[in-house]
Write a structure and sequence with these properties.
single chain; 558 residues; alpha/beta; seven-stranded parallel β-sheet; binds glutamine
Length: 558
């Protein structure tokens, strides 16, 4: 079935959620994606978000977590990061659609007169637009498109999406659609029981929109016993083998196997009339990930100096990429979340020296930047392996300019408009653009690495491509000075205008990248920069504290 399928034969799996948000719908959908891919099917994924923002690009990370950037520069929901990491396929801006983006397209068409004076309505115009977004994704030769609907079935904004996915079964045929509903089965301590009532109610709500689920995935802290599965099966009118128990997992990378044992992929295949014998499952690649997750190893403490550290979801891809590096080396990653504003105090008290490695991740705005500069100085001077990502690279340059070049007051123009030494600045052609969104460098850009540089050694190639999301650049007026003082600009844009990577040679690991390498890391293929950062941090850890063997170790929950 894979290879050469006509897009008209594409099958759809729709994931809806009930009872509560944050049940891990994205991870469950991603895990199913992995299982289906492991059956040799070509899988792609998509997220429909009922909120009104046009994209998550301008949303506060505190509220919404990280903005995940696709190859083509889409600023998307962080669930797309899970999708890419689990199914190991690059997605694009079309893989995420919000109510805001759908309405703005419809209103544009209405103003252009495309509707020829007709009354424009939620049904059919909004639902048609939602369906056309899904069909566009399905055109890419996929055997199966997994579509996650954000939010929960009772939400007011979700109604057009439920209506659209209901219609899809009629449009593409009964055997080409599978509805999976994710619910919560809570354990109530006073009665000592797991309760099915919330599941019943949320399935009733889904049915009131005309959707009868084919599969119910029950999230719970304890496995759902057979008797309870029978009860849910009866109440919700699904076969008992289509009631899948999904207990809290110690690591997200264990979820595919857990769902496989519960038979999720088999039920989905049966619903979609995919012949399981012709598509036997081969999970060997994922098995290697699982074996690494469970491996005991030396504790490696990686400090992440950021301003959104109270909500680690704001750095989701960064921490996953560090974990991937840990899997590679058999190291146990202990993330230390360091509030940027407090970093100066941690430096003064000497607490920073407990770190084995440091990451200064991306960010916007002035808050906490001085703390990041202090942290980077500490890492540079005390030889703590340090990776600067985007704003992190910029902070490395500012720190070097101030403390090594002696350029007092050096700064990024973003933080200080009147700095005497704008070592990070907008490029000339950007300054005139008023609309801030318009000036952002977004998506994949190619860079060339200096032969023999650490960057080139780490990547193992001299031309790379990484995803970007920033406005400011290293000011070319200063790059020669920085270079002469020992901060090598080891990665450059092909036209030599933009600095893409910096590094200090005489250091265990001091590397900055203007890009966001975290988006391209995979559990079985860690990104080279994270792999090498963790490698250098591991060397430091092993030289500083004895090897810690913890046989019960399972990586910390994500
Ligand atoms: N604020 C910086 C810029 O716009 C860095 C952005 C980032 O770290 N993603 O250039």
């Amino acid at each position: 079935m894979s290879g050469g399928r006509r897009s008209g034969d594409t099958k759809f799996v729709f994931f809806t959620g009930g009872v509560s948000s944050s049940l891990g719908k994205g991870l469950t959908a991603s895990s199913l994606g992995r299982l289906l891919k492991s059956r040799g099917l070509k899988v792609t994924m998509m997220k429909l978000d009922p909120y009104l923002n046009v994209d998550p690009g301008t949303m506060n990370p505190f509220e919404h977590g990280e903005v995940f950037v696709t190859e083509d520069g889409g600023e998307t929901d962080l669930d797309l990061g899970h999708y890419e990491r689990f199914i190991d396929e690059n997605l694009n801006r079309e893989s995420n659609a919000t109510t805001g983006s759908i309405y703005s397209e419809i209103i544009l068409k209405e103003r252009r007169g495309d509707y020829l004076g007709k009354t424009v309505q939620v049904i059919p115009h909004v639902t048609d637009e939602i369906k056309s977004r899904m069909m566009r994704v399905a055109e890419g030769e996929a055997d199966v498109v997994i579509v996650e609907i954000g939010g929960t079935v009772g939400d007011i904004e979700i109604v057009p999406f439920l209506e659209a996915i209901r219609q899809v079964r009629r449009d593409v045929g009964r055997d080409n659609v599978c509805y999976v509903h994710l619910t919560l089965v809570p354990f109530l301590a006073p009665s000592g029981e797991q309760k099915t009532k919330p599941t019943q109610h949320s399935v009733t709500e889904l049915r009131s929109r005309g959707i009868q689920p084919d599969v119910i995935v029950c999230r719970s802290d304890q496995p759902i016993p057979a008797a309870l599965k029978r009860k849910i099966s009866l109440q919700c009118d699904v076969p008992v083998e289509a009631v899948v128990s999904a207990v809290d997992a110690p690591s997200i990378y264990l979820i595919p196997h857990m769902l496989r044992e519960e038979g999720l992929d088999s039920v989905v295949c049966r619903t979609l009339r995919i012949d399981e014998d012709r598509h036997p499952i081969d999970l060997s690649r994922w098995d290697t990930v699982v074996s690494r997750v469970n491996m005991p190893g030396t504790i490696v403490r990686i400090g992440i100096v950021g301003k959104y550290v109270n909500l680690p979801d704001a750095y989701l891809s960064v921490i996953e990429a560090v974990r991937h590096g840990g899997f590679y080396h058999g190291a146990r990653i202990e993330a230390q979340w360091l509030q940027a504003e407090e970093a100066e105090n941690l430096v003064k008290s000497g607490e920073m020296s407990y770190l084995d490695g440091m990451i200064v991740p991306g960010g916007f705005g002035e808050r906490g930047v001085e703390g990041k500069i202090a942290a980077v100085e500490f890492a540079r001077v005390h030889e703590i392996p340090c990776l600067g990502i985007c704003l992190g690279l910029q902070v490395m340059v500012v720190e070097y300019a101030r403390h090594v070049l002696g350029l007092e007051g050096a700064n990024s123009r973003e933080m200080d408009r009147f700095t005497p030494h704008p070592v990070i600045d907008l490029m000339d052609d950007q300054r005139s653009v008023v609309d801030k969104g318009g000036t952002m460098r977004l998506g994949s850009y190619v860079a060339k690495l200096r032969p023999g540089s650490r960057a080139a050694v780490i990547y193992g190639v001299e031309v790379i491509s990484e995803r970007h999301r920033h406005r400011y650049e290293v000011n070319p007026r200063y790059s020669r000075q920085l270079e002469a003082a020992g901060l090598a600009c080891s990665g450059m844009s092909p036209d030599d205008r933009l600095v893409e990577m910096v590094e200090v040679a005489d250091h265990p690991f001091f590397v900055g990248t203007q890009a966001h390498p975290e988006f391209k890391s995979r559990p079985d293929r860690p990104h080279p920069l994270f792999r090498e950062l963790v490698g250098a941090a591991l060397v430091r850890a092993e030289s500083r504290h004895p090897r810690i063997i913890d046989l019960d170790y399972i990586s910390d929950p994500a």
